[in-house]
């Protein structure tokens, strides 16, 4: 049996890729759009931003928070704090609009 050496020049660059490449961020955004997960991701970001926007003092007195149809529902353990937050609801929404985009949060309800 005769061994034939492999000719690298013959097989070099036989496959040329003409498909444009995408970055990981673009692929993830496309996946979120296709599986309709972008809204849920945005809701999770809004919920996770509560402690950074409101501060640790208020976050410690928050027991539960969730979103439904663009409305943030927050359960506050302290009645006086709940009253103060109700009075400054528009200011809190403005802070969220500075952090995210305008119109991302329709309303806040304190429970």
Description:
It is a single chain. The chain has 111 residues and is an alpha+beta fold. It has a domain at 43-111: GMP Synthetase, Chain A, domain 3 (2-Layer Sandwich). Helices cover 50% and strands 15% of the residues. The protein contains seven helices and three strands; from the N terminus they run H-H-H-H-H-E-E-H-H-E. It has helices at residues 8-11, 24-34, 38-48, 50-54, 56-60, 79-87, 89-99, and strands at residues 62-68, 71-76, 107-110. A three-stranded mixed sheet has the order 1-2-3.
List keywords for this structure.
111 residues, GMP Synthetase, Chain A, domain 3, 7 helices, 3 strands, alpha+beta
Sum this structure up briefly:
With 111 residues, the protein is an alpha+beta fold.
- Compute the number of strand runs: 3
Helix/sheet category: alpha+beta
> How much of the polypeptide forms β-strand, as a percent range?
15-25%
The CATH topology of the domain at 43-111 is given as: GMP Synthetase, Chain A, domain 3
Percent helix, as a range, is 40-55%
Number of H/I helices: 7
How are helices and strands ordered from N to C?
Answer: HHHHHEEHHE
SSE blueprint and pairings:
Blueprint: H1 8-11, H2 24-34, H3 38-48, H4 50-54, H5 56-60, E1 62-68, E2 71-76, H6 79-87, H7 89-99, E3 107-110
């Amino acid at each position: 049996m005769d061994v034939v050496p492999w000719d690298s020049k013959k097989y070099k660059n036989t496959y040329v890729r003409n498909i444009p490449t995408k970055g990981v961020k673009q692929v993830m955004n496309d996946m979120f759009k296709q599986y309709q997960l972008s809204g849920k991701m945005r809701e999770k970001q809004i919920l996770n931003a509560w402690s950074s926007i409101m501060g640790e003092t208020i976050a410690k007195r928050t027991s539960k928070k969730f979103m439904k149809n663009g409305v943030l529902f927050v359960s506050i353990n302290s009645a006086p704090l709940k009253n103060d937050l109700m009075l400054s609801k528009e200011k809190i929404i403005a802070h969220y609009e500075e952090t995210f985009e305008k119109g991302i949060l329709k309303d806040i309800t304190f429970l």
